[in-house]
Amino acid sequence: MRRCQDLAVERMTEVQVKRKTWYDKNAVRRKFQVGDQVLVLATSKPNKMAVQWTGPGVIESQLSDTNYIVKMANKNDKTQIYHVNLLKPYHQRPEKINLLISERKETPEAESDELGIPYPTADPNVYDFEEIIRDSALEERLSFLEIEELRKLLGRHQKVFSNEPGKTHLVEHDIELLPLQRRKLELS
């Protein structure tokens, strides 16, 4: 009996090492710093397939390699301990930029304009191109001609860069649903 038990423990250890090696091949080590914004996996869902990330929260401190204290703003600034597997980095979406430039013919009024730049309308979804150049430091990376080409390109394709949602006829997508009983068999 003792020999069988030792053999079972030895075999179990070998399999454990193999499984850990296989898992670690695709595992991504996540490490967060204090002050990083993260999303937290909501674990109390009625259906385990209904994954929902909540947040963003802010890392308050690190307890160990795998445990972090996270402060959630939407929960009255309450802190809670989360395992690293329940966290993922939060990336704030970049601001959407919509630029409107209309072609103007040279008139005496346009000549008197100091900068000679057609300014966008007062629409809140339209941003000032000069501000975009300043904030992104394009002048350091692009020549004057390249910036002018960018200005013209954005003006020509202003509908593409719009904040208003649209639709296209270029792509179609079909979702084929399985009968309920067949779907239950495939899931189990």
**N-to-C SSE string, H for helix and E for strand:** HEEEEEHHHHH
Instruction: Please give the radius of gyration in angstroms.
Output: 28 Å
Q: What structural class is derived from the secondary structure elements?
A: alpha+beta
Specify the biggest β-sheet. Answer: 5 strands, antiparallel
Name the average pLDDT. 76
What would the principal axes of the Cα set say about the shape?
elongated
Helix content: 25-40%
CATH class of the domain at 36-89: Mainly Beta
Number of helices: 6
Strand order of the largest sheet: 4-3-2-1-5
- Hey, roughly how much beta strand do the residues contain? 15-25%
Number of beta-strand segments: 5
Q: Indicate the low-confidence ranges by residue numbers.
A: 109-113
What is the multimeric organization of the chains shown? single chain
As for the CATH topology of the domain at 36-89, it is SH3 type barrels
CATH architecture of the domain at 36-89: Roll
Distance between the termini: 37 Å
Domain Integrase p58-like C-terminal: 55-89
Protein name: Integrase p58-like C-terminal domain-containing protein
